[in-house]
Amino acid sequence: MRCVPKQRRVRAVRSILAALLIAGFLIYALPPASGALGLRLPAWPFTALAFACLIAAVFLLVRYEMTGFQYIIRPRTETDGTEFVTAYASGRPAICELPPEQLDFAVVKSQGARPGVMECLLSLGDLIAVYPIRRSRRDGMTKADLRERYAADGYVWYDYTLTLGIDDALALVFVDGNRTVGILIEPDEGMRAYFMTLKPHTDGR
Fold it and tell me: How many whole angstroms from its chain centre is CA 73?
C-alpha cells in the first residue's frame, strides 16, 4: 500500500512566499529611500530583517513546494532500503490482510529532482496508538498534547506532512527500543481507514 500526499494549499504557500520576498525587498530598500527624504536610518537592522525574510522564503519553498513524501506499507524483508520504493507500488489490497507483525511502515522523502531517500522504517508490530491530530485542543488531540502524553517515555516525533497548516494529520505512535516515536502523516482515505482500524486511539493506558 502506498500513499503520495499532495500540497493542498498551493495558493496559500505561494502567496506567503511572494509576500516574504516583497517584504524583504521593501525592508532592504527602506534606508536608501529614507536618505533621499533627509532621514538617516541605520542600515543593519533592515538588512537583518530582509535577510530573515529571505531565509523564511527559502525554507517555505523547500519545505512545502520542493519536498515530496511517500508512505509505504510493505511486507517485512531483509533489504537495504532501496528496492522497496517500487515494490508494492500498485497497492495490492491483500497486503492489509497480513498481520501487523509481518509489515513495515516506511517514509520516503524527496526534494526537487533528487531521488527519494528512506527517512523512516518501523515495524507495524511496534505500533501502539493512532491519533487524529488537530491544530486546536477544542477540536481534539494536538501535537503538544501528544508530546505531553508520552514525555516520560523519551518521546520524539517526526513531521512527514506536506500541506501547510494541515488540520487533519494522523499521528502514528511506535515503540522504538527505549523510546516512543511519533510519526505525523497525511494519508489518503484508504491508508487512514487502515490505520484507524488497526489501532484506533488506544495504547493500553
Answer: 17
